[in-house]
Amino acid sequence: MLNKIFSAYVRLRYGKMHWSLRYYYRDTYYCIAVQAKYLLRDYIFKPKYKVTSFDGEFAPELQFALPFAYWHHKNGTLKKTESSKFTRELYFFSPAHEEKYDTRRPEGNYNFEMPRILYSQDYDMNKWAQVPLKETYQNNVYVFDKPVLVIANRYNMEWDGPPISFFSIELLDHIISELKDRYTIIYNRPRPQNITMDNSDIYDMDEYSWLEKTHPEVILLENLWRENRAKANNFNHLQLQVYANASKFLSIHGGTATLASYFGGTNIILSKQGPEHHFGCYHKLYPKFSGAQILHAKNDDEVKQFIRNY
Fold first, then answer.
1. What are the backbone dihedrals phi and psi of residue 234, each rounded to the nearest 5 degrees, phi first?
2. How many C-beta atoms lie closer than 10 Å to residue 232's C-beta?
């Protein structure tokens, strides 16, 4: 009944908007309504009752599920957290964390127990707290002579089609040539065996051999994983350790960009299309993760321009 009411309201107020965007507006209202039933437990009585469980994709977990759980931790109401494999270090604050799910499901994104899901017209959220991943995982191991710049790439199926937003070999060559004298560059594009998969196929760019031949000065994160000098428990843990010592990032929309936005500094995000553009996520939501400066590039030329200017 609530969904019907919210759907009717959104249709009346935003009727000219494309149908593929309208239901995100409806879902925002529904999320707010669901949280109302916890008013007494969250703000008055505060028992340790909340179990957060999330098996959706990596980006919405970082955007909504993790800060929601951390808010309950700070509020004294967190009892347990449940998520996918390789997430224990993300939920370092949890009194009891279970890596319950072997895969991530797109359907898991629609978890209305969160204060928001996916995209929203309103990112002024209650029950959402900044998670101090940088402060937690800074270390003396991944320290270099020059400041660290992380290039966090991806080359995945997008919207059931071929990759759209990614740093091509041509663009990588430009980025590295421009910045290698000033930064220690660490390149990261996780292989399927190192992360919990969802429904997006990961393709091969064949850039690793090219990097080792053309730009041997670039450090490959997967090589750091083989060495594992900081004794990371898994590849996600290593990412946290390395990213925590960096303040400059270039990343691709989705979970890649979301994680990079958790560590302050400046993050140039390449996103050529997606609902994020309509909802202004890179300006309204992403700076909240750590106070990072977020620069949204819509094409390769804008990436080059941001590099020159910032």
1. -165, 175
2. 19
Whether residues 147 and 250 fall in one domain? yes
CB 172 within 8 A of CB 179: no
Q: What is the pTM of this model?
A: 0.95
145 and 272 fall within a common domain: yes
For residues 202 and 198, give the distance between their C-alpha atoms in angstroms, rounded to a whole number: 10
Helical axes 169-179 vs 300-309, angle rounded to 10°: 10
SS3 at position 299 = coil
Residue 116, in any domain of the structure:
no
Model confidence pLDDT, tens digit, residues 40-54:
999 999 999 999 999
Q: How far apart are CA 39 and CA 27, in angstroms?
A: 19
Report which of 250, 279, 280, 242 is spatially closest to residue 266, judged by C-alpha positions: 250
Give the CATH number for residue 267. Answer: 3.40.50.2000
Q: Find the domain containing 37 and state its range.
A: 1-44
**Please, which residues bridge with residue 51 across strands?**
80
C-alpha span between 180 and 171 (Å, rounded): 14
Give the count of domains, the chain: 3
The per-residue pLDDT for 217 is 97
